[in-house]
Design a protein that fits this description.
By secondary structure, the chain is mostly helical. Helices cover 61% and strands 0% of the residues. The longest helix is centred in the C-terminal third of the chain and has 18 residues.
């Protein structure tokens, strides 16, 4: 997938689109601590994770260790509303990329499963 979508530039643009949405999303915005660089640290982490997950360089693990996504997200209250808001923004960001139907479907399937896996609060 990494090569098919155009490598690192694709994930750079995807995460930029996504975090532009997070900046104005009232359900998600409170989950991100104040960051003088906006969402840059979070965006870079997501970008590097996605690059690695989809077959690119292992920069994420080299710098941060094993992803342990649930553990890393445990400090944040993620319920169905947060999951749904995150998914809505990520789906829009992926769809805006203009991927082939198969690549888009594969990516969206992953994001759907990952978002559901991060829920740590009841409805």
């Amino acid at each position: 997938m990494f090569d098919r979508v155009g490598g690192a530039p694709f994930f750079e643009e995807l995460t930029q689109r996504f975090y532009r949405g997070v900046a104005t999303e009232p359900t998600l915005r409170p989950l991100y601590p104040a960051d003088p660089d906006g969402f840059e640290a979070a965006r870079r982490n997501l970008r590097d994770f996605l690059i690695q997950y989809w077959g690119g360089p292992t920069t994420y693990s080299d710098e941060r260790g094993h992803p342990r996504l649930r553990m890393r997200h445990a400090p944040f209250a993620i319920g169905p509303a947060e999951r749904d808001a995150w998914l809505r923004l990520m789906r829009a960001s992926v769809k805006e990329a203009g991927l082939s139907g198969l690549d888009e479907a594969q990516m969206l399937t992953y994001f759907d499963a990952a978002a559901h896996h991060m829920v740590n609060q009841p409805a």
